[in-house]
């Protein structure tokens, strides 16, 4: 399937980036609801995501979004205890999900290590829930980018890069702590209407340049993903790289 080329937006700093992405997200949710869709929103964890979530909470009440009709998911989650501050879900809940009053039954967290014996089982339960809700047709699926080029919890050289028959997988030995995680796979990413990368800071500049450079290169995608996992991840309608100036400094 041919997809539109990625668009790159560069903003002066992390604060401007966060406000811009929050605004774009709210607009997109309003439009989706006006078109009769109940938008599925795929969240990411990480530093810039937290700043964006706080902006969503600030701008959300006046945005016109019907928060009772937004469905929340995560692109990846750390397989730790439910109360752990390391959970991506804990961060998003505190920042905007609870303040905006999104109903609990619309929020689909990956099961925690206290609820499930293994990350494999948590991944299977999560896959089943996604399948029941349109198999991952996200209105917007957001990703951070690691300095090593990882997205969600798909890390360079890891087996998860080669999972072709599953929506969500268990990840062991993540090079970034905590080591046990659950991640969506390319199978799920490929169904999203919009894919947005949210990247801030000089420490990510090499990874951004490498990923966008490799995206424009011909050759076997699976091989390129072994070293640069975020390469070739495109939404059906759009792919946007929201960068601050520092993250864009090596483009
Ligand atoms: O571990 C993770 O890290 C990345 C990026 O985090 P950052 O702090 O470098 O911005 C995030 O995309 C992912 O969801 C998360 O599990």
Automatic annotation (TrEMBL):
MF GO annotations: 6-phosphogluconolactonase activity
Pfam families linked to this entry: Glucosamine_iso
Name of the protein described by the UniProt record: 6-phosphogluconolactonase
InterPro entries: 6-phosphogluconolactonase_DevB, 6PGL, Glc/Gal-6P_isomerase, NagB/RpiA_transferase-like
Family named by the database record: Belongs to the glucosamine/galactosamine-6-phosphate isomerase family. 6-phosphogluconolactonase subfamily.
Keywords tagged on the record: Hydrolase
Every Glucosamine/galactosamine-6-phosphate isomerase domain range: 12-241
Enzyme Commission code(s) on record: 3.1.1.31
Pathway: Carbohydrate degradation; pentose phosphate pathway; D-ribulose 5-phosphate from D-glucose 6-phosphate (oxidative stage): step 2/3
Name of the top EC class for this enzyme: hydrolase
Catalytic activity: 6-phospho-D-glucono-1,5-lactone + H2O = 6-phospho-D-gluconate + H(+)
Function: Hydrolysis of 6-phosphogluconolactone to 6-phosphogluconate.
GO biological process: carbohydrate metabolic process; pentose-phosphate shunt
């Amino acid at each position: 399937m041919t997809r539109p080329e990625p668009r790159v937006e560069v903003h002066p700093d992390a604060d401007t980036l966060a406000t811009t992405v929050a605004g774009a997200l709210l607009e997109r949710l309003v439009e989706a609801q006006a078109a009769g869709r109940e938008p599925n929103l795929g969240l990411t964890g990480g530093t810039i995501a937290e700043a964006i979530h706080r902006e969503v909470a600030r701008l959300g009440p006046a945005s016109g979004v019907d928060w009772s009709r937004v469905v929340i998911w995560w692109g990846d989650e750390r397989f730790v205890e439910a109360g752990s501050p390391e959970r991506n879900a804990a961060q998003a809940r505190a920042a905007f999900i609870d303040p905006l009053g999104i109903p609990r039954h619309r929020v689909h967290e990956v099961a925690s290590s206290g609820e499930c014996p293994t990350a494999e089982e948590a991944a299977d339960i999560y896959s089943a829930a996604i399948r029941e809700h349109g198999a991952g047709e996200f209105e917007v699926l957001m990703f951070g980018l690691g300095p090593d080029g990882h997205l969600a919890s798909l890390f360079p050289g890891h087996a998860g890069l080669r999972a072709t028959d599953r929506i969500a997988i268990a990840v062991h030995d993540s090079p970034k702590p905590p080591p046990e995680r659950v991640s969506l796979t390319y199978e799920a990413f490929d169904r999203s209407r919009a894919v947005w990368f949210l990247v801030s800071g000089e420490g990510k500049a090499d990874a951004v340049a490498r990923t966008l450079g490799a995206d424009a290169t011909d050759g076997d995608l699976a091989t390129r993903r072994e070293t640069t996992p975020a390469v070739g991840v495109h939404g059906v309608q759009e792919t946007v790289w929201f960068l601050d100036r520092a993250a864009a400094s090596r483009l």
